User: What shape does this take?
Amino acid sequence: MARSIAPSDAEASTASPDADVDEPPRPALPPRGGSVARRLVPFALAALGGTLAFLGFAGFDLWPLALVAFVPGYAAIDLARPRGTREVLGVGLLFGFVTGWGGFYWLLEVLEVFSGFPVWLCTLFASLLILYTAGSFALAFWLYARARDRGFGATGAAVASSLACELLYPLLFPFYYGASFHALPVALQVADLGGPLLLTALAIAVNGALYELGAALQARTRPLPLRGPLAALAYVAFVLAYGAWRLRAVDAEVAAAPKLQVGLVQANMGLLEKREDPFEGQVRHLDQSFALEAEAHPALIVWPESAFASVLPEHIRNVRGYVLGDLATPVLFGGLSQRRVDGAPRYFNTAFITDAGGTIRGSYDKTYLLAFGEYLPFGETFPFLYELSRQSGRFTPGRHVRPLPLGAYGIATLICYEDLLPGFVRAAMASDPHLLVNITNDAWFGDTHEPWIHFALAKLRAVEHHRFLVRATNSGVSGIVDPAGRVVAHTGTFERATLHAEVAMLRGRTLYAIVGDWPGWLAVAAVLWMVTRRRATTD
Amino acid sequence: MTSARSPLEAPVKFLLVEDDEEVLALEARILGSVGTVEVARDGAEALARIQGGYVPDVVVTDVMMPVMDGLALARQLKRDPATSRIPVVMLTARGSPQDVTAGVNAGARHYLTKPFTAAQLLGKVHRALGR
Assistant: This one.
């Protein structure tokens, strides 16, 4: 940070009248005016922070950057605070917008390919969606600023505001910033205590502490504000110690548990190919399954979402002749089903499981349908909307999350981005099934970072519930993840592949499974307290 | 046998099995644009041709034919280690999931429903050749 924009020594040494809160660094810039260059400094810092944030996140996977990415952001906010709420929100939006474009750049390709609209219009649509996502950052920074205005230290304000927003701000593509650590199993284990928010807390606590210390050192504040940084350090130590202990415990649990060989098929059907030549997919899945069956003798073969691209009629209970042919292995496969609901035919995005003879033993209909792709919001109330948007699917959401049976075992089954919804997965795991399976088709997003981000984020569900996660996708990334979030095996993207591995059939509910998002609710309570408290100083 | 070939390599050898003369002529013209084509009017005749020493790179066969249908032909080819690696492309008017499953069970790994375009047929053939 340039010395010219740092809090002045005199201002920074102003004592807070409130003894139980840390002294906020006092920005040196006047509320209004100043040179254009100085006015732009907070925005430049926000752009820098946003860039570091997406580079540190899953996809680009430069995770150490996740520990420092928000430092420029907090500096920018503290500079913007004297200029009022509008500037704080602007800086926060810019941070989120840069992060969003860097992390969600693949949206543009998706829109171009499937809408057929010109690039400028697709860019506009993508920018609006990303702007909405950036709103979560802006809100978190605004809450942070309000808490700082009321005398709270940067570390506490940052953690509380970020966790509260991650819990409550609804996103079309949900993500938690803590997923930046998806490749660090020792850090991931706290997710079984409090879900992904505890990982976000790790990232933000370090960022907040670094900023708080750095700003104080630069302002020569004495005594140094150590409470927040020491709390962050203690939390980091706890995360690592707990992780080291849990990794050993998980290994012991896995060693003692019964195991099954599970195989999965990635047939790599192009989206247009899937529509124009639906039988090709059936042939590929069968062909690869026969090979898998001969090679690994699995107890279960998993096919991806809508692997069987035709509608499976309701009356068919044995699919040996219809879908599976001479396969003699239970198969969990994605397909389309049609049933009458309230006298009207309805279509479902369904996962079926069969026994070795091809008889369907259970099914699960996707609960969280993708807006615009699988249904139109308000489309059932205003059916003419479907006439206007003929490319949109018209599926009906499922009504239960019962596990699919595999002999004596239960399989919590998630379709597509349901594996990104920790709360929904908790509901699916409520009956304590033995295994997590996700079936997905990410071919929509092209050969971009998206399939890798989706896989990275899904890993956390395995840790949260101490279960193996078996993930079969159409075009990657398919994989098998152990209960500590370690990848046992995975495929690449846009390739035909099969995988098989031994998975343990585990039981037991974690603290997160039982209690849920308690860190988020604590953060909501904390941030409400922080932002509604009487101002400690006057600006 | 199923490896990709460069344009300089020998032309692809097809064995086309079809009982409808009109369709046979059309298919032969399409396949002839990328290789040499031997024809048979049913599965038994195709099998005899192969057992007689003609080893095609790809068998392209109809399903419903007199004497020996395409499914039986595919099964016979799959059963014999000498012919089990010859890729089979099935062309049929029977386009239901059950038909596809039956074809795959018999040993076919490429399936095209009629009517089809020349590009679709050549696409299947290229895929069968591993291209």
